[in-house]
Amino acid sequence: MGDTVIGFGILGCASIARKVSRAITLAPNATISGVASRSIEKASGFAKANSLPPDAKIYGSYESLLGDPDIDAVYVPLPTSLHLRWAVLAARKKKHVLLEKPVAVNAAELDTIIEACEVNGVQLMDGTMWMHHPRTEIMRHFLSDTERFGQLKTVHTCFSFAADPDFLKGDIRVKPDLDALGALGDAGWYGVGAILFAADYELPKTVTALHGPVFNEAGVILECGASLLWEDGKVATFNCSFLTNLTMDITAIGTKGTLHLNDFVVPFQEHEASFTTNSKSGITEFMTGWVSLPSEHIITAELPQEACMVREFARLVGSIKNGSKTEKKWPTRSRKTQLILDAVMTSIKRGYEPVEIVS
Known about the structure:
Layout: E1 6-11, H1 15-26, E2 30-36, H2 40-49, E3 57-59, H3 62-66, E4 73-76, H4 83-92, E5 96-99, H5 107-120, E6 124-126, H6 134-143, E7 152-160, H7 165-170, H8 182-186, H9 188-198, E8 206-209, E9 214-215, E10 221-229, E11 235-241, E12 247-254, E13 257-261, E14 272-279, E15 282-283, E16 290-291, E17 295-300, H10 305-321, H11 329-349, E18 355-356
Parallel strand pairs: 1-2, 1-4, 2-3, 4-5, 5-6, 7-11
Antiparallel strand pairs: 7-12, 8-10, 8-18, 9-10, 10-11, 12-13, 13-14, 14-17, 15-16
Helix pairs in contact: 1-10, 4-5, 5-11, 9-11
């Protein structure tokens, strides 16, 4: 028997929805059943521009889409300030929720979303695509290998891109009433998530914002960073920015090995991705080179990572329709990421003091 095909509704026509609509089309267990905008004209234009299936329904309001019994799940690419309202309403309408990141303005709002999903028995997952690339699971094996990698000691991550003037002036990610977390929520979400991934989702003891964040005139963060400290001495740093050249790096250093990659958010190629590792390396006698050079690991992917994400989400929804419980690891990971973002904001407001993480 084939997988249950899940009917998706797209709640909003943001630019990222173009990428995810393609992903839904590519995923073998998903289909686009409808798209909604605040105007029927915009929704219809989105459907035409993105070659949605001819039987996909067009809605001039989000409420209409959520009221359609033929839609199993919704993808929500709305501004962060609207997530609480529409994710909760979707859950109450028994729609499973694939929610763009950052998932909420703060952890308190996210807790309300998580509770609504739990009460109504619907799956919640955030839209962090790189987590679903097959490369990510293979990296996990290396990081868990006590012989090759040892114990994690340090992680450094960076996600930045040089936004153009139109973005910096008018994009929703620089407007306090739409996406108040700015670069921290948009790009920082990835860096924090990568750190937690390397730390096997163990929360740090404290988070300290780095001095020198950059804000726009409306007070939204355009660039910032932070350091994280664990009780066992692990340390991590991340930087996120709308103002510097495109960079997507992870470096994880253990007692015996190191992992590097330079395209963790968006792979250089859709169907192939790589990372490098080295274990127990040293310097030659006259310091002319390395003993045991880093090795490159190349992983092929049948589907783009965003389609892998949709496929996994649809699989979970199909399992729930067949009697399984919701998968809690995804909202749990989202919440841990959100807690660290909250701590960074608090640390900035307190003059860069360390902020203790309380889960």
